[in-house]
């Protein structure tokens, strides 16, 4: 069924998170997992609401633990961030996403308007290597910078650190697109959107899931779309699960969307199959 996929993960015991020893256990498994290539990127298509075409994908990391099975990022990103391991994991994900996007281009599955979105942890900025990670991944893969989109947190943009500001501006100068993930959950200060030439706002699923029932959510989403359009910023709705939601968003003037309604995140093989079927429509 459509909804069973979410329960395919074999979660760590929730209590594990609170215990230091267990964090250390997860961490040592994580190190092992990285060196033994247990991580994989899944890709969720992004749809242009007007044309119905696939205009991009978001890369989402998955961990195939040899005995625990498929583990969702919510279970390990926090530990990876706290330990600093996110740097190595993030570099791997960046390289893999660029390589894969270039491969899809070469296979003719996507065109030069397609963008690959990669999630970036604020920790990757704090540690200062993000611009090099991005430029190395682009160079190695041969992918054009404008086909790469970085999904950033709102908190990153209001951070006053000059090194973060410098890195953001440098990424923009390289031609990489910047997207604000989970928009609406944080500070909602619009000034910085212009300052860093943000090109995409992703409205958080918590608002999208309520637009059919809650007037307030609908008003908020509509307001975000209107402001964004004046600032020439694209809006992506995340977590669209049915046709009614897609239609409502389209009516509100939302540009793009992603969600289970079109596709769950897919492994490379299934993503390619999805793209081939989609091209035929
Ligand atoms: P996110 O960036 O907000 O990603 C969207 C999450 O919503 C994904 O969960 C996706 O599978 C899920 N989703 C997509 N469509 C729907 C829908 O229609 N309904 C529902 N209920 N959910 C939907 P996922 O893959 O478990 O990722 C969770 C979070 O982990 C991500 O949230 C992101 O913050 C983080 N993450 C994932 N991959 C990476 C990565 O490579 N690096 C970093 N730093 N963080 C990552
Ligand atoms: Ca994201
Ligand atoms: Ca998001
Ligand atoms: Ca989220």
Automatic annotation (TrEMBL):
Keyword Transmembrane helix part of the UniProt annotation: yes
Occurrences of domain EAL (ranges): 23-279
Coiled coil regions, renumbered to chain: none
GO molecular function: catalytic activity
Key word Transmembrane helix present: yes
UniProt keywords, alphabetically: Membrane, Transmembrane, Transmembrane helix
UniProt protein name: GGDEF-domain containing protein
The species this protein was found in: Halioglobus japonicus
Full-sequence portion shown in this chain: 355 to 635 of 659
């Amino acid at each position: 069924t459509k909804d069973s996929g979410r329960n395919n993960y074999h979660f760590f015991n929730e209590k594990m998170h609170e215990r230091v020893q267990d964090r250390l256990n997860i961490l040592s498994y994580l190190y092992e997992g990285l060196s033994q290539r247990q991580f994989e990127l899944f890709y969720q298509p992004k749809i242009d609401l007007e044309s119905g075409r696939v205009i991009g994908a978001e890369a989402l990391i998955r961990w195939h633990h040899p005995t625990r099975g498929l583990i969702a990022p919510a279970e390990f990103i926090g530990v990876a961030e706290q330990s600093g391991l996110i740097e190595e994991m993030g570099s791997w994900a960046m390289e893999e996403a660029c390589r894969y996007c270039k491969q899809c281009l070469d296979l003719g599955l996507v065109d030069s308007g397609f963008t690959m979105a990669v999630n970036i942890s604020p920790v990757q900025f704090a540690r200062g290597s993000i611009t090099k990670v991005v430029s190395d991944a682009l160079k190695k893969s041969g992918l054009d910078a404008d086909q790469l989109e970085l999904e950033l947190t709102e908190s990153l943009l209001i951070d006053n650190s000059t090194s973060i500001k410098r890195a953001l501006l440098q990424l923009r100068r390289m031609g990489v697109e910047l997207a604000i993930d989970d928009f609406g959950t944080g500070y909602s200060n619009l000034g910085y959107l212009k300052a860093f030439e943000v090109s995409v706002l992703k409205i958080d699923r918590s608002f999208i899931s309520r637009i059919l029932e809650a007037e307030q959510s609908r008003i908020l989403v509509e307001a975000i779309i209107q402001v964004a359009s004046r600032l020439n910023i694209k809006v992506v709705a995340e977590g669209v699960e049915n046709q009614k939601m897609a239609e409502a968003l389209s009516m509100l003037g939302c540009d793009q969307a992603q969600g289970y309604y079109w596709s769950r995140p897919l492994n490379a093989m299934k993503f390619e199959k999805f793209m081939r079927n989609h091209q035929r429509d």
